[in-house]
Design brief:
The complex is a heterodimer of chains A (167) and B (377). Chain A has 167 residues and is mostly helical. Chain A has 7 helices and 2 strands. Chain B is of the alpha+beta class and 377 residues long. In chain B, helix 4 crosses helix 12. The chains are: A mainly alpha (167), B alpha+beta (377). At the A-B interface, strand 1, helix 1, helix 5 and helix 6 of A face helix 5, strand 6, strand 7, helix 7 and strand 9 of B. Bound molecules: zinc ion (ZN) (2 copies).
Chain lengths: 167, 377
């Protein structure tokens, strides 16, 4: 049997092409099969650059000089434009300073803005306290909605207490 | 480190591990930053030096050594360029790690345990990249080992951590757990049947990324694919691992049934293909790299599908490292012209294949192993 594509070499490989769920069987020579296989595209990886360009403001990803007026991280001095170009933040503090804009980006990359995994030993107590504060806040909102004002006031005091321990 | 650079064999090539017919290796990597320092691309030379010193201190901690043995921290500048590339080809450092960016390159280092299972890149994109690489499908074990190392490092180092978004990393795609898990799978039958794209498109819809071997942007060589998690924030470590493991199990099933289908539907074509591949590896005197990778992949398919009595899978993976240019340069000890490369490659491959196929090919050039090895109906 002759290769269905080049019609020259002997065919030795079954090749199934799937286009929009339409299957097509072909009998190809190894050379053509390999070419077909190479054309196979691995799917565009997440393009952080495009995401950043969209999120860090107009022209952020273009080669703009770092302007004085521009938003910068107070800890390391990284400017938004530099982040837009490299896709890399400058320091841990950047996550705070770039706050809201970064949050939108995290949401798009991860579908979430909240860590739920491992916590370093050193931070563990503080982390648990913060989670407790979050939990009490939710309860307080619920109490207010149900007009249980006494309970809400007690919760508010408990939260204030915990926050003092955190500070 | 010396042994690592001398031998093309690494522990992750072992075939005495689960599902090695399809899954070559499992990897877990944790990205960690030191609190109080800018990320590596913004470090001053003095700060970069402090980071590598701190990493050295942490791995010399008694508890770390009690668990992981006599680890060494080697600076990239202590190694020749060829040796650095061998580390890449053994998947112990990333290609990007070797980009020489002047002064900061002096502070790039690699921590390696004697068994090569655990490695830590220092001053890569993040201050620390803790990585565990194991043979076969062993994601949980790999992630467990990386986690242990992380907990021991934490005894010395203060990591940048936010109560809301977790471990802070230079790139927002790694923030949260900092955990990237991946498997390397060999999918020759799905590729031959033209079903690999379909299979991998499904995978990429499940929050996973698929890449060809040896990084992004290169051609897929040897039908090897890497599947990894994309999301690091908002899921717990075990959820990330479970998701990848269960998708990998589906890919394993698909590849196995594709292999059976090939054996059933075109036994002669397939036997011919894998047998020819082994014949060429045993007897060729010049071999190009892509050709070698393709043939090794074919032989591996033949061996794992039971059509061929060839070298074990472990040796075939070793062959894949041998065929890479840096290993050739290392072996010859000098610059080679392309024809010389192909000749040396063929010689090394021939020697290793024949050593593991039993018998001297020069004496028994007649009917090949493929005949005796074919036990399937
Ligand atoms: Zn053809
Ligand atoms: Zn910063």
């Amino acid at each position: 049997m002759i290769c269905e594509r080049c019609k020259q070499q002997p065919a030795s490989v079954h090749y199934t092409e799937v286009i929009n769920n339409q299957k097509r069987q072909m009998y190809l020579c190894p050379g053509c099969a390999e070419e077909a296989q190479r054309a196979f595209d691995l799917g565009a990886p997440l393009n952080l650059h495009n995401l950043l360009a969209g999120l860090m403001g107009p022209g952020a990803a273009k080669e703009l000089p770092e302007k004085e007026t521009e938003f910068r991280c107070e800890t390391c001095g990284l400017a938004g434009a530099a982040f837009g170009q490299s896709g890399l933040l400058g320091c841990g503090g950047c996550y705070q300073y770039f706050g809201e804009r970064l949050e939108a980006l995290l949401k798009r990359i991860h579908g979430s803005t909240r860590h739920t995994g491992k916590v370093p030993q050193r931070s563990r107590n503080k982390y648990l306290l913060i989670q407790e504060v979050d939990r009490l806040r939710a309860q307080m909102r619920e109490a207010v909605e149900n007009e249980e004002f006494e309970r809400a006031a007690a919760l508010r005091d408990a939260i204030r207490d915990l926050q003092q321990r955190l500070a | 480190m010396k042994n690592t650079l001398q031998s093309p064999y690494s522990q992750w090539m072992d075939d005495d591990a689960p599902e090695t017919d399809v899954v070559i290796s499992s990897r877990a990597r944790l990205a960690r930053s030191l609190a109080g320092y800018p990320f590596p691309h913004r470090l001053s030379p003095e700060q970069a030096e402090q980071v590598i010193q701190a990493a050295g201190l942490a791995v010399r901690h008694a508890e770390f050594r009690a668990r992981f043995g006599d680890v060494e921290l080697t600076r990239m500048t202590e190694l020749s360029p060829v040796d650095r590339w061998i580390l890449v080809e053994k998947h112990l450092v990333s290609p990007g790690f070797l980009k020489n960016t002047g002064k900061s390159f002096e502070c790039k280092g690699l921590v390696l345990t004697p068994d090569e299972r655990l490695s830590i890149m220092v001053n890569e994109e993040d201050h620390l990249r803790v990585q565990c690489l194991l043979p076969g499908l062993q994601l949980e074990a790999a992630a467990g080992t990386a986690d242990e190392a992380d907990s021991l490092l934490e005894k010395t180092l203060d990591f940048a951590f936010s109560d809301r978004i977790g471990y802070l990393t230079a790139c927002p795609t790694n923030v949260g757990t900092g955990l990237r898990t991946s498997v390397m799978v060999h999918l020759p039958a799905l590729v031959l049947l033209g079903q690999v794209k379909e299979a991998l498109t499904t995978v990429s819809r499940l929050g996973l990324t698929v890449r060809g071997l040896f990084g992004e942007g290169t051609d897929v060589v040897g039908n090897l694919f890497q599947v990894s998690n994309q999301v690091t924030l908002g899921h717990r470590e075990f959820e990330i691992i479970d998701n990848l493991a269960s998708v990998t199990r589906q890919v394993i099933e698909q590849e196995r049934s594709a292999r059976q289908q090939l054996v059933r539907q075109m036994p002669v074509v397939l036997r011919d293909r894998v047998g020819r591949a082994l014949g060429i590896l045993k007897h060729a005197h010049t071999l190009g790299m892509e050709e070698a990778m393709r043939l090794i992949s074919d032989v591996r398919l033949g061996v794992t599908a039971g059509l061929l009595k060839g070298p074990p899978s472990r040796v075939l993976l070793e062959l894949m490292v041998i065929t890479r240019p840096s290993y050739l340069v290392k072996t010859s000890g000098r610059e080679l012209s392309p024809p010389e490369w192909d000749e040396l490659r063929a010689t090394l491959v021939r020697n290793l294949v024949n050593a593991h196929s039993g018998g001297d090919p020069e004496k028994r050039d007649g009917p090949e192993e493929g005949e005796e090895g074919g036990e399937s109906p």
